[in-house]
TrEMBL record:
It comes from the Eukaryota. This is valine--tRNA ligase. One of its GO terms (molecular function) is ATP binding. Residues 100-245 form the Methionyl/Valyl/Leucyl/Isoleucyl-tRNA synthetase anticodon-binding domain. It catalyses: tRNA(Val) + L-valine + ATP = L-valyl-tRNA(Val) + AMP + diphosphate. PANTHER family: VALINE--TRNA LIGASE, CHLOROPLASTIC_MITOCHONDRIAL 2, VALYL-TRNA SYNTHETASES. Residues 2-43 form the Aminoacyl-tRNA synthetase class Ia domain. SUPFAM superfamilies: Anticodon-binding domain of a subclass of class I aminoacyl-tRNA synthetases (SSF47323), Nucleotidylyl transferase (SSF52374). GO terms for biological process: valyl-tRNA aminoacylation. The keyword Nucleotidyltransferase does not apply. Its EC number is 6.1.1.9.
Length: 340
């Protein structure tokens, strides 16, 4: 739990030294995450974690800026700025990853606004931290790369939707975080194109904006599938760069929205897009595949031939079995030896 900070104990932390090492915003954010009325364990681990969060925020801003059009490209910017996310129709008609992240953002804004009104600053910080890192950075930014680098028919339009969602989501994250982290958020805000006013005088995000709970649920199923495939790859030590085949088994309704995002699924799971199949029944090679259950009514089959070198895997497991057998025999021998 830590010890109480006092001059007598000589364990007082100088905030100026802390700022020098971790940054002003990281210190402010760490202190704000505490629960009102309770002691705060001001540990180096927390400060380090929130410094990493600040760096993550900066890197996300850098990625978004690098993937926005040049400010002089007026036609591209007209298309991006034409997207508005304040109507039910607009949000529902977005592609699944975009609809999911915008819906989650609108839920965050409502929750953060309510918590700010009640002075539950720690709740705001934790919810925003989780949304930014776990949803926006880890999932949507990664999914957006497929849109941003897409070429061919419709590629530019798809990219502009992703750019609009990236910009919209990020600027609202900056607004929610600004009271906690005024310096880094203002710096990032000023770097965004077409900023007429400083962040500190910008209006607070609107509340009660539309969200689609059905799309949120669908994308959660999509995430479960990606996680299951990633876990299987890790368990079988598949090389990160290697793309593998997969068969996704589900009912027609689930297959429809999963297959529509096949490129994103292939990108996030490192699958071979040409050998990614969707079906209602077990694939013909099911008995020679790794079977994954991602959720109720959503399964996947990964051919073992893609996952492992069979002969090398047999050799590895045989050596492991031999080692475990020796350890077992040694333990049995100790148990059977006469007590001294």
């Amino acid at each position: 739990m830590g010890r109480k900070m006092s001059k007598t104990l000589g364990n007082v932390i100088d905030p100026l030294d802390t700022i020098k090492e971790f940054g002003t915003d990281a210190l402010r954010f760490t202190l704000a995450l505490g629960t009102a009325g309770q002691d705060l364990n001001l540990s180096t681990e927390r400060l380090t974690s929130n410094k990493a969060f600040t760096n993550k925020l900066w890197n996300a801003g850098k990625f978004i800026l690098q993937n926005l059009p040049n400010e002089n490209d007026t036609s591209a910017w007209e298309e991006i700025l034409s997207y508005k996310f304040d109507s039910e129709v607009t949000v529902v008609n977005l592609p699944l990853p975009e609809c999911w992240v915008v819906s989650k953002l609108h839920l965050l804004i409502d929750s953060a606004s309510a918590s700010y009104d009640k002075f539950y600053f720690g709740e705001v910080g934790r919810e925003t931290y989780d949304f930014f890192w776990a949803d926006f950075a880890d999932w949507y930014i990664e999914a957006s790369k497929e849109r941003l680098y897409q070429s061919g028919a419709g590629g530019k339009s798809v990219a502009s939707v992703a750019q609009a969602v990236l910009l919209y989501t990020f600027e609202n994250i900056l607004k929610v975080l600004h009271p906690f982290m005024p310096f880094v958020t203002e710096e990032l805000w000023q770097a965004l194109p077409y900023r007429k006013h400083a962040l500190i005088v910008s209006p607070w995000p609107e509340t009660q904006l539309p969200r689609n709970t059905c799309s949120v649920k669908k994308f959660e199923n999509f995430q479960a599938l990606v996680r299951a495939i990633r876990n299987a790859r890790a368990e079988y030590s598949v090389e990160p760069a290697k793309r593998i085949s997969a068969s996704v088994v589900a009912n027609n309704e689930v297959i429809e929205y999963i297959a529509e995002e096949r490129e994103v699924l292939a990108l996030l799971s490192r699958l071979d897009l040409q050998n990614l199949h969707f079906t209602n029944s077990f694939p013909g090679n099911a008995d020679q595949s790794v079977h994954l259950v991602a959720g109720e009514g959503l399964e996947a089959y990964l051919p073992l031939a893609d996952m492992v070198d069979i002969s090398a895997e047999v050799d590895r497991l045989s050596k492991r079995l031999s080692k475990m057998q020796k350890e077992y025999d040694g333990l049995i021998a100790k148990l059977n030896s006469p007590q001294v």
